[in-house]
Specification:
The complex is a heteropentamer, with 1 copy of chain A, 2 copies of chain B and 2 copies of chain C. Chain A is mainly α. Chain A is built from 6 helices and no strands. In chain A, helix 2 packs antiparallel against helix 3, helix 3 runs parallel beside helix 5 and helix 4 packs antiparallel against helix 5. Chain C has one domain. Chain C is mostly helical. The chains are: A mainly alpha, B alpha/beta, C mainly alpha. Bound molecules: protoporphyrin IX containing FE, adenosine-5'-triphosphate (ATP) (2 copies) and magnesium ion (MG) (2 copies). The site of one magnesium ion has 3 residues of chain E, from helix 1.
């Protein structure tokens, strides 16, 4: 029995249905622990004051926004190569979640930027490439919505996702070249000297784990919804035609 | 020349025809009949290779098909001759004079396609078939808006094509006066397809648990 | 394939959407900007490279839906798909014809419009060079977008939405080349990047576009 | 007439060219400009009013050909011309529907995009006001242009060419209102002019558009 | 009801038909015949008021005409019911149920128009006539791509319309099985019109020096 068994819609529904309650519980637990720990049980930063606590939303959301696109890319490739409907629907399900994560990162970033840099928005490379990512999500979702035949939509959006990924990476590089930024470099790498102090670091890790779980849970939920929607459409079409 | 076996085809993700099979030999004409909406257009597009079959097999000679559909593929801003020459060049087919003559277009040679009447446009669309030089013609309601004389021209063209070893698959509602076999599509209507009375089993209770029919 | 290219050229010129109009749009846009931002010369000369590039991009964009939509509507695309020519070649020929009717005239007229916007002297040659290198990428990326949206009734705005983010790298490197040129800085890196993007796009995207077309036709 | 307006609204929203996409285009344009002209904030804030207005104008322009072209192609326009409704009313209803699906969303999102371009604080209210007053004029002028070009295959660029010069006065007064507002100067005159243009255009152009349609149909 | 007298009409600036005249009384059907390109479409558009006549008179009741042409005027993104309701609202005509039933569209009520087959679209286009509530129908090849059963439906609808005092002017190439007068347009072909063998007198030698035929 291969792993592709789970790509069967029926099988996926059974397994995900059994898994979901656990996932929801675990997600809630991690998120609550992480956020409460971060917001109430860490001190203020000596430079940034209490605004530093936005980090617990901002960083996980930003990470997930990027990784959601990665997951969509993987799912698109699987669909194109093996034509498993669940993976196409999973990609479709993930897009609005990724979009929301991008929005959260942008919004929290803007709110954070006001006290830190004195402006809501700056044309910093990282910020800018995030804005472009936002546009990619918008285009991807709009294309899904615009096409009526499900398999056609899955195929076309997959092609878009692949080509878009290449251009997204290219944009990231181009933007770097175009403007030097204000934004922090990566500071979570384990081997770096200037890591965030441990006080912030551990709750942040828990929050990131929480967001990962949240993402997985939401993708499961939405994929199930998409599958049901698809069945409903098929039924309705037949009903109408009968 | 063209063999179709147990073919199922779908439109808009919904099965339309099921288990269609026929053989088309050189020199033969096969006429597809069936009420509006049975799936003639869908079948012809599938055979022409424009959409993948849901199931079944299509055996056609590589690069042997010429397809003519509801739309004629004419450029309104090009003249009759330019339109034909373009398709002749693309298909590497024979020169266009013969085609112009066969469909009585000589007098319209240098008219822009947008200034043709409905029937003249259609004649030009059919003349295109002759310049493809392809042996198998796949035609979807070719005689729409043609008058009697033009229908006769068309029938002559098909006869000449068959005499030269070609063959044609034609979906039509009218009588073309051709000697041809007729395939009625009504028995091949897919279960649960448009117009079918008995609904197929509900989607939430498929017999095989691993086969989800919403994803056909 | 050459026939197809020539036909598309002829249609582009005849169908009221040819050379003249792409230019005219570019011209009008460049004329509008001073109305929008005010007429101070030193100010205009600073934004000139960016505006010219954004203008070229939009002029390109406006004519993109012509690439496949008309052929789709009148059934030509169905016929081309079963014709003995590879669909990849068809998309490449069409993108090329689009470039010749849209991109090329822009390259030629850009210096003239530079005058209107007070483009600094040394920037002219870089303007032409960067447009000449960059506009083919715009046409080929656009053809990919057009292939994605060809089935949709009047997908014009959706097309813009899909294509514009893809245009970002080209725009950045193009405008950067001109800006650096205007200030006398070295332009090697952005120019090389621009050329690299163009080459890669011209070589690879026709395949993606052909795949998208095949999907849309079925 | 109300039916026609509602139908056009519904089609605008459904046909993949609805609210979202007009917005998206506007957004993208505003994002592209900094790539073109460079990221310095004080600089962006100077050109922000002009860019926002030019952006609104282009977003409008891109969707203009939808106003009549589709109805022409599928024969609806012929049928409407012989229907018991005045063609002037038809053009007005269609222009209005265009404004609601395109202009109105632009008005609503403009403040957000102002942030991206560093629009100075006091200018926000003037931005919204001038767009709210000016965009109906854009839709009605555009409907007239669309009526003129409706018979032509893919007259998109020709349409832009005809319409853009007609947009100039609206653009000048609109952008001027915001610029003055940003600098704290009195805005009475340009705002009054803008309102005057809008009123005149909305009252008169449907007649011209209907006349153009009648000619194009025969 | 509809009187046409000595009508000349032109297309693309070229005279096509000359001196056409007929009277259509309530309850009557008049069928226009003629080879492709003779000018049927041009004549019908002129009668419908979509283009001005070159000469002659058209007496039609104000707001009494309903026109249906090669194109159906359907919105691909609206359903069958929405399409019909829109036209019913515009014309202030009767409710749509009757029309749906007459053309056997009840089962397709909530289908998007773009997902109809060619013949189903055409049926919907014809159903539109019923919801206009107009007495005079002007139809240009109404039965294109209809199967036999649908043609019969159409004939029934025309008969019912005439029985209720309406009338119809129909250009068609096929036999509709209607009791109707037939007007053959061939004798009215304008001199020098497309396809005419004998050329008219040269343009540079007009008989009346003040009447330049380049500006007809
Ligand atoms: C709208 C504005 C902003 C956006 C779009 C944004 C975007 C991002 C992204 C994408 C990341 C994740 C990067 C990665 O790990 O690869 C990130 C991380 C981070 N951001 Fe922001 N940001 C914004 C504003 C800010 C502001 C104002 C601050 C505070 C000064 C800030 C501080 C951080 C920090 C500390 C991290 C963690 C860096 C790391 O460890 O990787 N961001 N942001
Ligand atoms: N998206 C869709 N959903 C449901 N049914 C659809 C969809 N698209 C098409 N159909 C149906 O599929 C059937 C097959 O259509 P097709 O065009 O092949 O018919 P046809 O035999 O060519 O008819 P005609 O003689 O009228 O041209 C039709 O009944 C049509 O209504
Ligand atoms: N611009 C033009 N210049 C010259 N001739 C034209 C022009 N436009 C149309 N014609 C001709 O006018 C004639 C009348 O066309 P019309 O469409 O009325 O014919 P029809 O009787 O409806 O034919 P069909 O049965 O094919 O629909 C045709 O012969 C056509 O070729
Ligand atoms: Mg069909
Ligand atoms: Mg006709």
């Amino acid at each position: 029995m291969s792993i592709w068994e789970y790509a069967n819609p029926k099988r996926f529904m059974q397994v995900s249905g059994a898994l979901l309650p656990w996932l929801v519980g675990l997600t809630l637990l991690t998120l609550i622990v992480g956020l409460v720990w971060g917001f109430f049980f860490t001190g203020d930063d000596y430079r940034q004051g209490s605004t530093v606590k936005i980090i617990y939303l901002h960083v996980p959301a930003a990470l997930m926004a990027i990784n959601a696109w990665m997951m969509m890319l993987a799912a698109s490739l699987i669909w194109l190569v093996r034509r498993h409907h669940v993976s196409a629907l999973a990609a479709r399900a993930a897009a609005p979640i990724g979009l929301t994560m991008t929005l959260i990162a942008l919004a929290t970033g803007a709110i954070w930027g006001q006290p830190m840099w004195g402006t809501w928005w700056a044309w910093d490379p990282r910020l800018t490439s995030f804005l472009i990512l936002f546009l990619f999500y918008l285009g991807y979702i709009a294309l899904w919505e615009a096409i009526e035949t499900p398999d056609t939509a899955a195929d076309l959006t997959s092609v878009l996702c692949i080509v878009g990924s290449v251009f997204a990476v290219l944009s990231r590089y181009a933007v770097n070249f175009w403007n030097q930024g204000l934004h922090q470099g990566a500071s979570l790498s384990l081997d770096k000297e200037e890591n965030v102090s441990d006080v912030f670091f551990f709750p942040l890790l828990v929050c990131i784990a929480g967001f990962v779980l949240l993402f997985v849970t939401l993708v499961f939920l939405r994929t199930r919804t998409e599958i049901r929607q698809r069945r409903l459409d098929a039924l309705e079409a037949r009903e109408r035609l009968a | 020349m063209l063999t179709v076996d147990a073919l199922s085809c779908a439109r808009g993700g919904l099965a339309v025809l099921h288990g269609v099979g026929f053989v088309l030999n050189p020199g033969e004409v096969l006429i597809l009949r069936g009420p509006n909406g049975i799936g003639k257009t869908t079948l012809l597009r599938t055979v022409a290779g424009l959409q993948p079959p849901v199931a079944g097999r299509i055996d056609a000679p590589a690069e042997g098909l010429a397809y003519a559909a509801h739309a004629d593929g004419l450029k309104a801003q090009m003249t009759v001759v330019e339109n034909l020459e373009f398709w002749s060049a693309i298909f590497g087919g024979p020169p266009i004079d013969e085609a112009l003559r066969a469909f009585d277009l000589v007098g319209l040679r240098s008219r822009l396609a947008q200034n043709l009447s409905a029937g003249q446009k259609r004649r030009l669309g059919l003349a295109r078939l002759l310049v493809t030089g392809r042996p198998v013609w796949i035609l979807d309601e070719p005689t729409v808006s043609l008058d009697r004389a033009s229908v006769a021209l068309f029938a002559d063209a098909v006869r000449a094509h068959c005499a030269a070893g070609g063959s044609a698959l034609i979906a039509t509602h009218i009588d073309l006066g051709l000697q041809a076999e007729v395939l009625d599509l009504t028995p091949f209507r897919a279960e649960g397809a448009p117009g079918e009375a008995s609904p197929r089993p509900r989607a939430d209770a498929p017999t095989d648990p691993f086969d989800d029919e919403a994803f056909l | 394939m050459i026939r197809l290219f020539l036909r598309d050229l002829a249609l582009g010129v005849r169908a009221g959407g040819g050379f003249g109009l792409g230019l005219a749009f570019f011209l009008i846009l460049v004329v509008l900007v001073p109305f929008g931002v005010g007429p101070e010369p030193q100010f205009l000369s600073r934004i000139a490279p960016g505006i010219l590039w954004v203008g070229a991009l939009l002029a390109c964009l406006l004519s993109l839906d012509r690439i496949f939509q008309l052929d789709f509507e009148d059934g030509s695309l169905d016929l081309l798909a079963v014709a003995p020519v590879p669909l990849e070649g068809v998309t490449a020929a069409k993108a090329l014809a689009h470039w010749v009717t849209t991109g090329l005239p822009l390259v030629l007229i850009a210096p003239l419009l530079g005058v209107l916007l007070n483009l600094p002297g040394p920037a002219y040659s870089y303007m032409i060079l960067s447009l000449a290198i960059g506009t083919p990428a715009l046409s080929f990326i656009g053809a990919f977008g057009a292939a994605l949206t060809v089935g949709l009734k009047r997908g014009g705005l959706l097309l813009s939405l899909l294509v514009l983010p893809l245009y970002v790298p080209t725009l950045i490197f193009g405008a950067e080349t001109v800006r650096r040129g205007a200030e006398g800085l070295p332009v090697g890196t952005p120019l090389a990047m621009l050329a690299g993007i163009s080459l890669a796009v011209v070589a690879l995207l026709p395949f993606a576009a052909a795949a998208a077309l095949r999907i849309n036709l079925r």
